Amino acid sequence: MEVNYKFKTKPYAHQVEALDRSVDKESFGFFMEMGTGKSKVLIDSIAYLGSQSTYPLDRVEFALIIAPKGVYRNWINKEIPQHFSDEVPHTVCHWQANQGKAYREQVREFFSSREPGVKIFVMNVEAFSSAKGKKAGEWMAEKFGRFGLIAIDESTTIKNHKAKRTKSLLKIADKFKYRRLLTGSPVTKSPMDLFAQFQFLDPKILGYDSFYAFQGRYAVLQKRSMGAHSFQQVLGYKNLEELTRKIDPFTFRVLKKDCLDLPEKTYTVRSVGLTMEQLRMYKDLQKEAMTLLDDGKLVSAPQVITQMLRLQQVLSGHIKTDQGDMLEVPTQRLSAMMDCIEEVSGKILIWSRFRYDIVNIRAELAKVYGADSVVSYYGDTSDKDREIAIDRFQNGNARFFVANPATAGYGLTLTEASTVIYYANDFNLETRIQSEDRCHRIGQKNPVTYIDLIADGTIDEKIVKALRDKIDIGARVLGEEAREWLKLTPKSQAA
User: Fold this and answer.
1) 125-145 confidence digits (pLDDT tens)
2) Spacing of C-alpha 5 from chain mean position
3) Per-residue pLDDT for 79 more than 70?
4) Which of the four, 75, 200, 353, 431, has the lowest number of CB atoms within 10 Å?
5) In CATH, what is the architecture of 265-273+311-486?
6) What is the b/e burial string over 136-168, where b = at least 16 CB atoms within 10 angstroms of the residue's CB?
């Protein structure tokens, strides 16, 4: 079905194709790799279905967008304002676990308003593990589902058919007229990951109400015993061509390498919530820095940057004490990075300015993907091991290259990577430019996506914006500007 619709931002050819293929279907999955613009496709879908030109399709009056903690604020702050058509009236509201009086009044006004257009409500998927979140979802489904659309961003968050949030969302999805899935990698471990995701879309697509019946059709099983207990062990998979034929009419799959119309560089952010311990420590350090600034003891850029560095360490999940000991701080940053990795294919370059991060990242990747999947490159790496790391990444089977940009950001060719994650940014503009160019250079055959992990309302935001705008941070953190950088208000993202 060809879409007649005025876009707010110009789509790429593959985005138009995704929209055309999906718009007249009640159930559809956008299986589009990170960096290919699946968020925009969903937003354009909602806007089109909510417009006056929808006939003969049922017009959408309400959309419920569900995403992980680290992503859902991005929908509110960036994606919807940037891409939703100005021609289609709409209002946006989002879920908050801690619901004060002001928030409750905001939500009441949102749902009671009789203004024409589409109401868009954004929730984090983790909320559906709680009784409060489940109840809210069920209420929205009953009230708005008949003329509504429900979408799950990063739909592998519901791949476990036994999980509480999966069961909650399957029950809710059944009430909605339109259902959408978004993910760059619908299968992360095995084809069995598809069952719950397609139950969400429409059980009729796969034709199985039971996971075990689905497993019996597409998995090779062997009965095993352990003591008095017996279980089915998966030895392999079968009938996968049949499975592909079933899902193909309801999905659109695209990888970055297939999108010849994409720009050479694509930048995106992944929000990372702060743990309560991080929030407390960040505010304590922030107060200390502001006191030093008010007392006139922070008079130079290096002094201010030292304070910013301590704040940045806390955001990464560690800080060095006055005695020189390393104190570990609970953080969600590592898990946010792992979620990003699930969304992309191919080799990945990961930068962090901190040795502590590099060691932890390598250990986590080795645990999940195997020791041979990852190499590292930082100050303590010997010359011989540096050569080996480069060769294993460029020519061997290592999928991840974890490095310090001040050490590995100059002179190296790492063109096997088309995804770059900045775990913790260096403040130096030249270092950032050089580190970006390690994979974006002669020999690179694919567009490159750069992902910055940021904690909302912290110096992370300022640092990333400055570096992307090609601003020398050292020249900007004096006087009142330093005050602005240091007194940002961090936000917790507890479900």
Assistant:
1) 999 999 999 999 999 999 999
2) 28
3) yes
4) 431
5) 3-Layer(aba) Sandwich (3.40)
6) bbbebbeebbebbbbbbbbbbbbbebeeebbbb
